[in-house]
Specification:
Elements: H1 4-42, H2 52-61, H3 63-93, H4 99-130, H5 138-171, H6 177-195, H7 197-201, H8 207-230
Helix pairs in contact: 1-3, 1-8, 2-4, 3-4, 3-5, 4-5, 5-6, 5-8, 6-8
Length: 231
Amino acid sequence: MRSPQNTATTPARSRFVRGRLVGAAAIAFVVSVVVENAVLAVTGAPTFDAPIEEVLAYYAANRDSVAIASGLVALYLPLLLVFVTGLHGLVERRGGAGADWSRLALAAGATLSAIFVLVNVLQIGLALSAGGLAGPTPEFALVWQVHAAAFALALPTLGTTFIGAALAAHASGLTPAWQRLLGLVGGSLLLAAGLGNLAIADGSPLLFVGLLGFAAWLVWLLATGVRLVRS
């Protein structure tokens, strides 16, 4: 029979382990995303306003790089789901303050994962088909446009995930006030960029507004992950 002290210690130890797992998932997600974007940037991935001939040439010449980036996406999507699910569990175990926000983050995070799957599937299709084409075809151009449109629509979903997670984590005492402010500002930038999703898919510089919000999301995740691992 366990003593009352051991009984009280076990839930605390369980929360500690669970918090470290959620924090580690957040840190691993950030590292994976940074490496993925570094691979694409180093190889000169085309922007959405690039001529379709340039897009075809990139995917024909960089199939291995796209494979690495796609593998990283397959790694970090489960990490994202572990984080938003684990965060909701932590919020509920700390009294439930901010639970509604964490549910919003969980739902938006699951939707975001589905959109990222579509973005990645289309990118794989571009890489697989590019090598067998002598020149751009209407079908290839359509896949590229749908890829761009899916990425643009991922921005407001990410903004919703960001705001929900930031408010939930602060309400439950997991993060300080500056991280809540970062979540509100960064999430709002992503939502604002999402309003111009058609323009972004067509190559508009409005994309950089969303990228600022995305950078804020990575900073928030890293800071939160470190706090959870050390707490």
